[in-house]
Amino acid sequence: MFSFSKVSNYLAVIISICVSLIFIEVILRFAWQNPYSNTSTDKILKLRIHHQNIDQTLKRDLIDDKIKSVHFRTDDRCYIKPSKRFSKPDFTVVFMGASTTECSAVQEDKRFHYLVSKNLEQRGLKVNTLNIARSGSTIHDCINVLFNHVVQDHPDVVVLMTATNDTGILKAYHNYTVRMPYEVCLKDTAKYSLQILSIHSSLFGFIREKITVRDPKTRPLENVKRDNAIIDPEPFEARLNVFITMCKSFKIEPVLVTEPFINSYRNILTPEWADNDNQKLFNQTIRKVSEKNNITLIDLSSYIFNKEQRYEQLQQVFYDGIHVTDYGSQLYASYISEKLYPLLKTKR
User: Could you say which DSSP state residue 240 is in?
Assistant: First the structure.
């Protein structure tokens, strides 16, 4: 055991070092011109994708009291499992978007990107369907992920579904500045240090899991006014065109998807910034851009409203008016498969 005197000596040494450092800092401020005082740190661009080789169990008792948790895994390329079903596929299709595409609260074998692969296999096509979606993403994030990650896997088709988070970001900031490169700060240093340490240490892995574990509850966006003011969709439309052009430049077939939202069925899990008028406006923008660029449109919003019109039926499709249940995911898969099959058959 340490004696009290030894502890006092250690404290005295620590205090002496701190006083010395402060003294040196003061002297330098008066005697030396710091060439870095008006500069900034490096800027970093964060890709909104999951880390590779995740293996977690996520709670979903808020939406299902029978199956209260789901398995959530990613492969070595950060795609959500199940991912690569075929070693030599006829086609590779990548799904991009936010939480409505991510389907983290859906059982692994019922996520629609996986079921699309199964459905197309029954029609004679071997298709690897890769899901790179991440909760909170916008069209701006998807452009970054496409350019800096997805193109390396040489997909034949990229399917994009995003609208709701875009309305939230544009409602709060009127632009996508918050999703552009930003200066490294001490908070980033602490965050990334914890990530590195958790790879090599069970203790830090335990700490990281306890403070970062997710559930289906949607995190609010800062600065979003809870009103129904109509948003200018021009920044969203411009980026849709950029996304399409980028896909074609890499010889990828782009496919746009409208995002259903049932405004009458809101609960604590529904994104606070979502509203019916802006959702309709942005979905209509997706339709317009698809027609203008002569690319495939999967109009999920119109399909769901035409197929499941009664409120009781819609409750079975969505658990919060926008995120699908296991049943809703299977419904998505059926319609998406139907729309993708003729496109892939033609390419074949």
Answer: H
Cα–Cα separations (whole angstroms), residue 32 to 25, 176, 212: 10, 40, 43
Helix axes 234-249, 164-173, angle to 10 degrees: 130
Element (H, E) at 329: helix 326-347
Distance, in Å, from the CA atom of 342 to the CA atom of 348, rounded to the nearest integer, reads: 10
From the number of C-beta atoms within 10 Å of its C-beta (0-12, 13-18, 19+), residue 209 rates as: exposed
Give the three-state DSSP class for 151.
Answer: helix
> Could you tell me the two tokens for 242?
């950029």
Whole-angstrom Cα distance, residue 35 to residue 24?
Answer: 17
State the alpha helices, DSSP H only, in 32-184: 99-102, 112-122, 139-148, 164-173
Are the C-beta atoms of residues 37 and 173 closer than 8 Å to each other?
A: no
Specify the pTM: 0.88
- DSSP helix/strand/coil, 11: helix
Q: Are 142 and 225 in contact (CB under 8 A)?
A: no
Residue 295 CA to residue 298 CA, distance in Å, equals 10
Closest CA to 282 of 304, 262, 259: 259
**What pLDDT tens digit does each residue of the chain (348 aa) get?**
556 677 788 888 899 999 999 999 999 999 999 888 888 888 889 999 999 999 999 988 888 888 889 999 999 999 999 999 999 999 999 999 999 999 999 999 999 999 999 999 999 999 999 999 999 999 999 999 999 999 999 999 999 999 999 999 999 999 999 999 988 888 888 888 888 988 889 988 888 888 875 555 545 555 555 566 889 999 999 999 999 999 999 999 999 999 999 887 788 888 888 888 999 999 999 999 999 999 999 999 999 887 755 656 777 899 988 999 999 999 999 999 999 999 999 877
Q: How many angstroms separate the Cα of 298 from the Cα of each of 7, 67, 132, 152, 322?
A: 69, 30, 18, 25, 16
Distance between CA 160 and CA 139 in Å, rounded? 9
Structure tokens at 317: 């499709």
